[in-house]
Input
Amino acid sequence: MQIPTITKAMQQYNPDIIHFSGHGDGVEGIIVEDINGDIVRFPTFGLNRLFKRFKEKVKCVVLNACYSKEQAEVIS
Output
């Protein structure tokens, strides 16, 4: 599943710029691929929790997905 993979990558690389490329799913989240190439939803509440953990380090997030206004709001 993609969520632990994204979290693990953020812990490992400690990035200050993050770019998500996928499809927006409105209030539900964004659609991304997992390590097997399967489509999974990264839920909005998960993005909120993730970025609260990394709020001191992350300086810029690019959401390259339609219908991602809700995610932009929780990340900011």
